[in-house]
Design a protein that fits this description.
By secondary structure, the chain is of the alpha/beta class. Helix content is 21%, strand content 24%. A 7-stranded mixed sheet has the order 1-7-6-2-5-4-3. It comes from Alterirhizorhabdus solaris.
């Protein structure tokens, strides 16, 4: 299945649709090239969780953590673009972040086999007309939750 994302507003809305489904311990893996819509999707999700300002890209910080009252559920927005080997990610404390919140990971392929098997895998691509398309792989943990009904 796939979802067309004709513009940034649609990508923000798709992110917002995930917010009420997100639970403690969830991992959402965002795949796609630079400019494919991963950060825009994350911004929509974080806004729907209550973040008042626009979420910055975590490209330089690598991990941007949000917690109540800023958002309704603790979420760590992670950008692994600058991680060169999966072992470097261990130092980020992502397992600990899952104990009381969720992970939203851009460039999850940098983790290789270390990506949590229960992750929801979302794939963003740019279509020939410049729009975006969202496709996904759903783990057993997400079968009853994604896509939103």
């Amino acid at each position: 299945m796939s979802l067309p994302l004709p513009d940034a507003a649609a990508t923000l809305a798709a992110g917002a649709s995930l917010a009420p489904l997100l639970c403690t311990g969830d991992v959402v893996a965002l795949y796609g090239d630079l400019g494919a819509g991963k950060t825009t999707f994350a911004r929509g999700l974080l806004a729907a969780l209550g973040l008042a300002e626009e979420a910055p890209s975590p490209s330089f910080a690598i991990v941007q953590a949000y917690a109540p009252p800023e958002v309704s559920l603790p979420v760590s927005h992670v950008d692994l673009y600058r991680i060169e080997v999966a072992d470097e990610a261990v130092e980020l404390g992502l397992d600990e972040a899952l104990e009381d919140g969720a992970l939203l990971i851009e460039w999850p392929e940098r983790l290789g086999a270390a990506l949590w098997p229960h992750a929801l895998r979302l794939y963003f691509s740019v279509t020939d007309d410049g729009a975006r398309r969202l496709t996904w792989e759903v783990s057993a943990a997400w079968e009853s939750r994604w896509p939103p009904r």
